[in-house]
Known about the structure:
This protein is mainly alpha-helical. The chain has a domain at about 10-95. Helices cover about 45% and strands about 5% of the residues. It has four helices and two strands, in the order H-H-H-E-E-H.
Amino acid sequence: xxxxxxxxxxxxxxxxxxxxxxxxxxxxxxxxxxxxxxxxxxxxxxxxxxxxxxxxxxxxxxxxxxxxxxxxxxxxxxxxxxxxxxxxxxxxxxxxxxxxxxxxxxxxxxxxxxxxxxxxxxxxxxxxxxxxxxxxxxxxxxxxxxxxxxxx
Length: 152
């Protein structure tokens, strides 16, 4: 909306701030069923686009102050956008790192050391018991171990 003096709001700055804030928040999309693979890229690209819009808005505010307003707010928003962009880049680099391989982890085809864990009824069951089979049945050919890191 134009005011009586003919000055206009600088929407590029505010849209840039919105995109810069939405970048780090895009990590929550995984929890609503969004595919996880593009999330790290979305959380990096949105703040970059937002920062470019903030720079365009600042250029407009300082280059043509007679038309566009927002020098002070634009400067503050630019600092916030730079901090959010730096945080997004750091989070992106952390998300892309793979954990180092454990030297003690069993390899595919390697025999697993024996262990004992409680079953669903609370009875202790060892890996040796599972491999040897039940009293009346044949021994299984293999045991599938599933390591589940879920929320209980």
